[in-house]
Amino acid sequence: MRVDLAVALVFGLGVTGAGAVDFSHDIVPILKEHCGDCHLGDKKKGSFSMNTREDVLAGSENGDVLEVGKGARSLLVELLTTTDKEIQ
Known about the structure:
Layout: H1 2-12, E1 15-16, E2 19-20, H2 23-39, H3 53-58, H4 75-81
Helix pairs in contact: 1-2, 1-4
């Protein structure tokens, strides 16, 4: 499932062959399931919020988490696909 989220974020923050992806409709449900406990609503673990596309692109207290066009190499994808239980 984490790989699905990573792929959705990498390809979902732009335009796909099927048309534009809507952050609220297509991405937020995935974020709620996998990241909501720590990064949605009033929760901002590491000063990182995933409430909006702009929040994701703003990054965290440690810097950029995702850069449009370089999603596959982003910290966000690395964290989402790790098998390290402490990071998940």
